[in-house]
């Protein structure tokens, strides 16, 4: 996550699960969403939006009614949080290499914070999100419960 705040300062952070943008006050956020340099939503009015990795798709993303992604999928879930306009927009599934830009419209009147897992930047004016495959990690889990089984169980209410 690469953010630019209203004062022009730049903050960067890594996320394993998701990057979320959230309204800071009572008014909804007003966002412009671009994917790979093309504006896809000129105006999204909502409480927020998040972009989730497969690892994070069963956490906040699922709570916001986003799709569960298989852990080895080369995909990202783009999920609105309480979208007001466009009314029926439910989000999108993007290729993992997508570069997503969020511009905060009316950012002084409708301030927004950006959160990469647990690192928050307040009063952002723009946020760029892209996957970095040069970083690796080892994921630990219980041998008796594979991640694929857990994801299937979550989808079928097992």
Note the topology:
Blueprint: E1 2-5, E2 10-12, E3 18-23, E4 29-35, E5 38-46, E6 48-52, H1 60-63, E7 75-81, E8 92-95, E9 100-104, E10 112-116, E11 119-121, E12 124-129, H2 147-155
Antiparallel strand pairs: 1-2, 1-12, 3-6, 3-10, 4-5, 4-9, 6-7, 7-8, 9-12, 10-11
Structural class: mainly beta
CATH homology-level superfamily: Probable inorganic polyphosphate/atp-NAD kinase, domain 2
Show unreliable segments: none
Amount of beta strand: 35-45%
| Tally of alpha and pi helices | 2
Give the mean pLDDT.
92
* Rg computed from alpha carbons, rounded to a whole number of angstroms: 16 Å
Elements, N to C (H/E): EEEEEEHEEEEEEH
Q: Widest sheet: strand order?
A: 2-1-12-9-4-5
The oligomeric state of the chains shown is single chain
Based on the structure given, which CATH architecture is correct? Sandwich
Helix content: under 10%
The major beta sheet can be summarized as: 6 strands, antiparallel
Total DSSP E strands = 12
Number of separate domains? 1
Query: What is the approximate shape?
Result: globular
Distance between the termini: 34 Å
CATH topology annotation: Tumour Suppressor Smad4
CATH class bucket:
Mainly Beta
